[in-house]
From TrEMBL:
<feature type="transmembrane region" description="Helical">
    <location>
        <begin position="121"/>
        <end position="142"/>
    </location>
</feature>
<dbReference type="GO" id="GO:0005886">
    <property type="term" value="C:plasma membrane"/>
</dbReference>
<feature type="transmembrane region" description="Helical">
    <location>
        <begin position="41"/>
        <end position="62"/>
    </location>
</feature>
<keyword id="KW-0812">Transmembrane</keyword>
<dbReference type="GO" id="GO:0017004">
    <property type="term" value="P:cytochrome complex assembly"/>
</dbReference>
<protein>
    <submittedName>
        <fullName>Cytochrome c heme lyase subunit CcmF</fullName>
    </submittedName>
</protein>
<dbReference type="GO" id="GO:0015232">
    <property type="term" value="F:heme transmembrane transporter activity"/>
</dbReference>
<dbReference type="InterPro" id="IPR002541">
    <property type="entry name" value="Cyt_c_assembly"/>
</dbReference>
<feature type="transmembrane region" description="Helical">
    <location>
        <begin position="176"/>
        <end position="196"/>
    </location>
</feature>
<keyword id="KW-0997">Cell inner membrane</keyword>
<keyword id="KW-0201">Cytochrome c-type biogenesis</keyword>
<dbReference type="InterPro" id="IPR003567">
    <property type="entry name" value="Cyt_c_biogenesis"/>
</dbReference>
<feature type="domain" description="Cytochrome c assembly protein">
    <location>
        <begin position="89"/>
        <end position="197"/>
    </location>
</feature>
<keyword id="KW-1133">Transmembrane helix</keyword>
<dbReference type="InterPro" id="IPR003568">
    <property type="entry name" value="Cyt_c_biogenesis_CcmF"/>
</dbReference>
<keyword id="KW-0456">Lyase</keyword>
<keyword id="KW-0472">Membrane</keyword>
Amino acid sequence: MMPEYGHALLCLALGVALLLSVYPLWGVARGDARMMASAGVFAWLLFICVAGAFFVLVHAFVVNDFTVAYVAGNSNTQLPVWYRVAATWGAHEGSLLLWVLLMSGWTLAVAVFSRRVPADIVARVLAVMGMVCAGFLAFILFTSGPFARTLPAFPVEGRDLNPLLQDPGLIFHPPLLYMGYVGFSVAFAFAIAALLSGRLDSAFTRFCPPVDAGGVGVPDAGHRARLGVGLLRAGLGRLVVLGPGGERLLYAVAGGHRPAALAGGHRTARRL
């Protein structure tokens, strides 16, 4: 029954994300402070639901529940327990679930640490992040469900985890990388909120620099872990370290233009 609970939590998370996408914006339109404040409650509920579903999947890997097709395809009884936990994000379905978990975590972080930001801006930002979360949750539920069963027949032994991921450095590489990439969604949400409100508020320029620093710094830590694996492995490691260059260029381009834009925003805010 545990996988069914996980699937139900994802369905509930999708409903909460849709409410987060609509209800606070309705409150902004009506000028209702209580409706705008509900965005924080929805952010908490969204994170709890997604985290619950994620830990249900982790539990399935730890106990070798091969009635779950995703577990049977990416783990086996001979794997050490830490690699079974890492196998949770070792393939497509689980990595998407990790992505949504981190995105819901960033959404909750905005709700918790933006108490000095005007309520209407916070409501717009959280609504935009709720829309993004809802899109990913819908994609998971309709095309990439991690809790699909192998029943009525199920294997007594699973397939192995991808050998490239069977290294301590690569256990931490995907979560760190995703944490930084997903962090850019906060800056995106603030930008969309500024467009929706028709103004570049000083709160936007104050809140985004630490987010951008995390968005660039955290993936870099993940790439350093990946680079360490490459240095330890002579043959295969050379192939492992070829990837980060293009990925680092991606988020460097995405975040590199922002300091000048934010500096201009600070000057504009001071003039206003």
